[in-house]
Amino acid sequence: AVQFQAPAPPDRELLPLIKDVGTIGVLSATNIAPVQSLDIEKVMGRLTDATAHALRNLKDRTILGQDEIRWHFRGVTLDSATVFSDSLQASLRTELDLDGIVYITLRSLNAQVTPVSPSPYGTVNSPGLNLSVELELLFVNLHSGKRWAQAGRRSSWKPVQTDVMGGRGDPTERQMLSALASPLRQFLSRLAPPPRRQTRSFDTSGD
How far is the CA of 10 from the CAs of 7, 45, 91, 141, 189, in angstroms? Predict the structure, then answer.
């Protein structure tokens, strides 16, 4: 028997939506004001890059990242009002040959510093950050206009950390990415599931 990774098809309910989609673009947006030192645009950029990478699980599809789309439409504000207009969707089809887009929106973000922090034994008397996010992910077929949306709200409460050693990224950004990852995984598990391990047996006994 031989084990190998094989592409997994999208959720059966979504197959009619993406059957004629060969090239998919990925965009994100938010109108949330900056929170303390948290770089929301940077976090959303990393989330969008991760989405584009995961969409490459789809067999025989080309994925166009956000940077290339925004560079092509530089000077155009790609917010929800613009992206969902008939004129821009026509431009996405004719100028970039896009058949579909995944649009990611950070709907809400609430960050509150608390006087105590969670611990394995309850709470401790040191500052904590209670972070709550709401993320909406939308797939649009640019030919039929049909859409599929999924939204998720997540909360994360962790001790406030000071990264005095200059470690990997800002701890608050990592906490926000961790909270956003759950609704993103749920969306991708239906649209672009990861490859599945399959086993194939061969008859080696001879005639």
Answer: 10, 24, 27, 15, 8
